[in-house]
Automatic annotation (TrEMBL), chain A:
This is NADH-quinone oxidoreductase subunit J. Residues 216-229 have a biased composition (Basic and acidic residues). Keywords: Cell membrane, Membrane, NAD, Oxidoreductase, Quinone, Transmembrane, Transmembrane helix. It comes from Falsiroseomonas algicola. It is a multi-pass membrane protein. NDH-1 shuttles electrons from NADH, via FMN and iron-sulfur (Fe-S) centers, to quinones in the respiratory chain. Couples the redox reaction to proton translocation (for every two electrons transferred, four hydrogen ions are translocated across the cytoplasmic membrane), and thus conserves the redox energy in a proton gradient. GO terms for molecular function: NADH dehydrogenase (ubiquinone) activity; oxidoreductase activity; quinone binding. Residues 199-229 are annotated as: Disordered. One of its GO terms (cellular component) is plasma membrane.
UniProtKB/TrEMBL annotation, chain B:
PROSITE patterns: COMPLEX1_ND1_1 (PS00667), COMPLEX1_ND1_2 (PS00668). The gene is nuoH. Coiled coil: none annotated. The lineage of its organism: Bacteria, Pseudomonadati, Pseudomonadota, Alphaproteobacteria, Acetobacterales. This is NADH-quinone oxidoreductase subunit H. It comes from the Bacteria. One of its GO terms (molecular function) is oxidoreductase activity, acting on NAD(P)H, quinone or similar compound as acceptor.
């Protein structure tokens, strides 16, 4: 009974926050509602007994992906009135696209049917006597190891692509070569110095002092002071 | 009594009582951590530290708390009100939430769940939200800059922390925190995995925004960083959350590397002292090093911080992970699984 009540609570909050993601005016609030949605999805995983998936969902999506979303969205300077300006003009096109997508969804769900033996697997993700971390490991690293590695490879390619597209060598930027700094010797060292010793006594040359500029003589109105008399 | 504890209400009451038994000492610990930090810093800088309120200044934390409570909560104009007030609560709540899975002694965890270490990792990675929301909701450039720095810093150091945790898990063969401690009954993991311990400790410093990685606060450049606009209790919650996080990270290091509640040797004089005392002693040792580091090192520059995280710790922990896995496989030390 408690599990069922918890399920409906989390599911309701999940759907409500998903709606708020789309409808809220402020993009930062959208991302925050998205995070709430992730949390409730994780809670649903927990109820289904998939605690490993729940924790990974929180770590990866809430702990890393959504942080970067928030990071970007907070720095965007979005002008909302400008966004709303062409609403009347674009509404029919948007509506048509939405209608097509909705029709497709109806077709998909209309022709959806479960295999005969799948009923026993629903909400029963682990085999008897194995906790679900091990159950996932057993499947992922044996039967589906190629797909698993392939998806990792795709992510790697995407990452390299993003770096290649955005990395520009800027010759003007200053860089610090830590290796060179650590490896150098002689320029910085500690030594014992008698208190009160002058710089010359311990062998440190003062930087050459520039010769003072000749002070410009203030011009007087006349060298002949006695002129008025 | 037994019958009552089996009912749902009884289970709830028992859980609340357990949580209280953990959280009340924790909060007192947080209060005295602030006192201990000031005392240790004082001793290291050859001054006295707080010594006026109560004997040895022992009542200082309560005086500070009372002062905080008396002050006015100021909400800046232009701030996003709800989020502004929510941010310190999130920070404080997360710092408390993680303690649910910490085993103080063999079997003494409020929730002894199978994926305990993942839960801890998840909660600690959520800590960044309190900071980033505070920075954004304050509507102030200093707070925002502090929040951005903090977000980048915490995400970076989590990566190498993740690899450290995976290395430990390889040697244990379980995600359960109690199992992790039990696996160290022969030798604490600090000995075979010493480099990982060092990385974990430094990453914990960065994760809790402590010196020398306290750039999100950066008093000298950002006034006080992400919580510059906070006052009164909302500030106190941030403050308490930061110190509770320090204790949490020390507990995590204790569990992963210092053998949790286990005594240094399973011999007579050591086994007289009960497990929780060992656990607290080890946490105190880690906290002392946290403060020691703060008294010793100057603050890192931001690009150096990022370099250390991505270019030093990440490759090193990856390589060490592979070495550990290879060693376990070659010598047949892999833990029995399933």
């Amino acid at each position: 009974m408690i599990a069922a009540a918890a399920f409906y609570l989390f599911a309701a909050v999940l759907i409500a926050s998903a709606v708020m993601v789309v409808t809220s005016r402020n993009p930062v609030h959208s991302v925050l509602f998205l995070i709430l949605a992730f949390f409730n999805a994780a809670a649903l995983f927990l109820l289904a007994g998939a605690e490993f998936l729940a924790m990974i969902l929180v770590i990866v999506y809430v702990g890393a992906v959504a942080v970067l979303f928030l990071f970007v969205v907070m720095m965007l300077d979005v002008d909302f009135s400008a966004l709303r300006e062409g609403f009347q003009r674009y509404a029919p096109v948007g509506g048509a696209v939405g209608l097509v997508l909705f029709a497709e969804l109806v077709f998909v769900f209309g022709s959806w049917s479960f295999a005969d033996d799948v009923g026993g697997l629903r909400l029963n993700p682990t085999p008897e006597g194995v906790d679900n971390t091990r159950a996932i490991g057993r499947i992922l690293y044996t039967d589906h190891v190629w797909l698993f590695q392939l998806s990792g490879l795709i992510l790697l390619v995407a990452m390299i692509g993003a770096i290649v597209l955005t990395l520009r060598g800027r010759p003007a930027s200053k860089r610090q070569d830590i290796g060179a700094q650590v490896a150098r010797s002689g320029s910085v060292n500690l030594r014992q110095v008698r208190p009160g010793a002058g710089l010359g006594e311990i062998g440190i040359e003062r930087p050459p002092v520039e010769a003072p500029k000749p002070v410009k003589q203030v011009e007087h109105h006349g060298h002949d002071h006695g002129g008025h008399h | 009594m037994e019958a009552f504890l089996a009912t749902p209400v009884g289970i709830l009451a028992l859980t609340v009582a357990q949580a209280m038994a953990l959280l009340v000492p924790l909060l007192i610990g947080v209060a005295y951590l602030t006192w201990a930090e000031r005392k240790i810093l004082g001793a290291m800088q050859m001054r006295k530290g707080p010594n006026v309120v109560g004997p040895f200044g022992l009542l200082q934390p309560f005086a500070d708390a009372l002062k905080m409570l008396m002050k006015e909560t100021i909400i800046p104009s232009g701030a996003s009100r709800a989020l502004f007030l929510m941010a310190p609560m999130i920070t404080f709540m997360l710092a408390m939430l993680a303690w649910a899975v910490i085993p103080v002694n063999d079997g003494w965890a409020i929730a002894d769940i199978n994926v305990g270490i993942l839960y801890l990792f998840a909660i600690s990675s959520l800590g960044v939200y309190g900071i980033i929301i505070a920075g954004w909701a304050s509507n102030s450039k200093y707070a925002f800059l502090g929040a951005l720095r903090s977000a980048a810093q915490m995400v970076s150091y989590e990566v190498s922390m993740g690899f450290v945790i995976v290395t430990v898990l390889l040697c244990v063969g379980s995600l359960n925190l109690t199992e992790i401690v039990r696996a160290q009954s022969t030798v604490w993991f600090i000995i075979p995995l010493f480099p990982m311990f060092v990385i974990m400790f430094i990453s914990a410093l960065a994760e809790t925004n402590r010196a020398p990685f306290d750039l999100p606060e950066g008093e000298s450049e950002l006034v006080a960083g992400f919580f510059v606009e906070y006052s009164s209790m909302s500030f106190a919650l941030f403050f308490l959350g930061e110190y509770a996080n320090m204790i949490l990270m020390s507990a995590l290091i204790t569990i992963l590397f210092l053998g949790g509640w286990l005594p240094p040797m399973a011999m007579e004089p050591f086994t007289w002292i009960p497990g929780p005392v060992w656990f607290i002693l080890k946490i105190c040792f880690c906290l002392f090093v946290f403060v020691w580091v703060r008294a010793t090192f100057p603050r890192y520059r931001y690009d150096q911080l990022m370099r250390l995280g991505w270019k030093v710790f990440l490759p090193f922990s990856l390589v060490w992970l592979i070495i550990t896995a290879a060693a376990l496989k070659i010598f047949g030390w892999l833990p029995a699984v399933g």
